[in-house]
Design goal:
The complex is a heterodimer of chains A (100) and B (400).
Chain A: H1 3-24, E1 38-40, E2 75-77, H2 86-95
Chain B: E1 5-9, E2 16-20, H1 23-32, E3 39-42, E4 51-55, E5 58-62, E6 68-72, H2 75-93, E7 98-107, E8 110-115, H3 122-131, E9 135-138, E10 141-144, E11 149-151, E12 158-160, H4 169-177, E13 179-182, E14 186-189, E15 202-213, E16 221-225, H5 227-236, H6 245-258, E17 261-266, H7 269-280, E18 313-315, E19 319-324, E20 327-332, E21 337-341, H8 343-354, H9 359-370, H10 374-390, E22 394-396
Parallel strand pairs in B: 2-4, 8-15, 15-17
Antiparallel strand pairs in B: 1-2, 1-3, 4-5, 5-6, 7-8, 7-9, 7-10, 10-11, 11-15, 12-14, 13-14, 16-17, 18-22, 19-20, 20-21
Helix pairs in contact in B: 1-2, 3-7, 5-6, 9-10
Classes of the chains: A mainly alpha (100), B alpha+beta (400).
């Protein structure tokens, strides 16, 4: 096979491959170009040019049931293990817990 | 005192709450959970994991799963705290339900959902819908069935105090007339009879609505968004911490394929509620679809190494793909990370699915497809490939 024919075959093959790849893109999109973007959940941060969505949880930390905040400083260890004896809690209410 | 200690039974749940020496907490809880038919009986047997009581130091609630108790400032706050625990149990009890963090209202026999984070306006808007005569399914939590139906949790909406001075007088009056348990931080609002769906009541989802609340007066407006915006919001605003991303996608994707996603812009919640209702009832127009958000490149992107333009790239193994509208969502199965590609990014992914390709060739193909300058598109593709490579979504094709 001549070099000319080899080049022609290679050219045809290249054009066919290119047509196949372009066909894979579909049709009707011309003029609708926007730069390709990748957005990873966990890096969410709406740009200032699009203030319409404020992803209020910017990371992929899903919300937890919202117990009202502000109780954090008011914890105490259980004075007794009430599960063991249900009357203890009533006694503590009436008489006051021991060693408080 | 009548029934110093009572057990509160939750219908349908093998679970009870014990209340000692705190009838005001019981009353507040009964009103806050007005969509439940709570049953009480004299306390009997060992104390359950969840209990609340009052002693000389105040109100105390057990912290389930720990050996601690925490103090509650008021019966209304006790109702808030207990409702959070009870909803958690409610959703744990029904493994088919996924808990969504959203407000929800029934319009025309379908639910409009507002999946948003805290302080986005869900409760105020839900209350505004109640004031406008609509039936609400909740202001904070909704169950979602595998069939895409919403399941009410039966909890009255709860507003933060003080109320904004900017609320319209009509809504402020409604909130005053329907005030439920309150303290200096929160107020429950008890809708009209039948205005709050009962716990377990279901209704098909009809729309997702993202909220844009304005501090300056604006005319309410509803515009269409891409379904990907709604999907992303559902992926972020749910309580299914233990559920794999693929399972969440299987639940949310079909929903977003069939219901519209809207953005509601408003300043007056009551006007916003009425406008949205008119749109969803077919009386008003939603505007043209908003462009998909253009996200600022993550800070890490600045540190991404540029990719060699002649290297052939292929998709990494272990990535599931989910097309939605013009976009493509990807899940890295090993890490459970979710990614979103816009239309052009999706086309790049499609091309890489055909065969390994280099940046320059990808740029040339897209430039021809979109009739754009090859240099411009090539630079954009190079940036995308750097991000894809940095995220582990593509890898160099094996030689040969």
């Amino acid at each position: 096979m001549s070099a000319h024919n080899e080049n022609a075959i290679a050219g045809d093959s290249h054009r066919q491959r290119r047509r196949r790849l372009l066909a894979a893109l579909g049709t009707g999109m011309a003029g609708a170009y926007v730069a390709p973007t990748l957005f990873s959940v966990g890096q969410a941060r709406a740009s200032s040019s699009y203030s319409s969505i404020s992803y209020s949880r910017p990371s992929y930390s899903r919300p937890s049931y919202s117990r009202p905040s502000g109780y954090e400083g008011n914890h105490r260890r259980r004075v007794r293990e009430y599960k063991d004896d249900p009357t203890l809690i009533l006694e503590d209410i009436i008489l006051g817990p021991p060693d408080r | 005192m009548r029934h110093l200690a009572v057990d509160v039974m939750l219908p349908g749940l093998d679970f009870c709450l014990r209340v000692y020496n705190a009838p005001d907490v019981l009353e507040a809880l009964t009103l806050a959970l007005s969509g439940w038919s709570l049953m009480t009986r004299p306390a009997d047997g060992p104390a359950p994991e969840l209990y609340v009581y009052r002693d000389a130091d105040g109100l105390w609630q057990s912290d389930p799963g720990t050996d601690e108790e925490f103090r509650l400032p008021s019966p209304a706050s006790a109702a808030c705290s207990l409702a959070a625990d009870l909803l958690s149990r409610r959703l744990e009890h029904d493994a088919e339900l996924i808990g969504l963090h959203c407000g929800s209202v029934e319009i025309n026999g379908r639910l409009a959902l507002f999946p948003q984070g805290s302080r986005a306006g869900k409760s105020t808007l839900s209350t505004a819908f109640a004031a406008a005569g609509y039936r609400i399914f909740g202001d904070d939590v909704l169950g979602l069935t595998p069939d895409g139906e919403g399941v009410a949790m039966g909890v009255a909406p709860r507003l933060r105090l003080p109320l904004p001075a900017s609320l319209p007088a009509e809504l402020t009056r409604y909130i005053g007339r329907h005030a439920g348990p309150s303290d200096d931080r929160y107020r429950y609002v008890l809708p009209f009879e039948g205005g709050l769906a009962q716990s377990g009541e279901t209704c098909p989802v009809g729309a997702l609505v993202l909220l844009e609340r304005s501090d300056t007066p604006v005319r309410p407006e509803a515009v269409k968004l891409s379904p990907g915006d709604g999907l992303l919001q559902l992926l972020c605003q749910n309580f299914a911490r233990e559920t794999l991303p693929q399972a969440l996608m299987a639940r949310f994707l079909p929903l977003m394929e069939r219901v519209p996603c809207l953005l509601l812009r408003y300043s007056d919640p009551l006007a916003g509620a009425r406008h949205l209702a008119s749109v969803l009832e077919g009386e008003g127009d939603a505007g043209a679809i908003e462009p998909a958000p253009t996200f600022a490149p993550p800070e890490d992107n600045a540190r991404l190494l540029p990719v060699e333009r002649t290297t052939l790239w292929q998709p990494s193994a272990g990535v599931d793909t989910y097309p939605l509208g013009d976009e493509l969502f990807l899940i890295q199965l090993s890490a459970g990370v979710i990614h979103r590609l816009n239309l052009t990014g999706r086309l790049v992914w499609q091309l890489l699915g055909e065969e390994p390709l280099a940046v320059d060739e990808l740029g040339a193909l897209l430039a021809e497809h979109f009739c754009r300058p090859e240099a411009e598109v090539g630079d954009d593709v190079a940036a995308l490939m750097a991000a894809l490579h940095g995220a582990g979504l593509v890898e160099p094709a094996e030689a040969g």
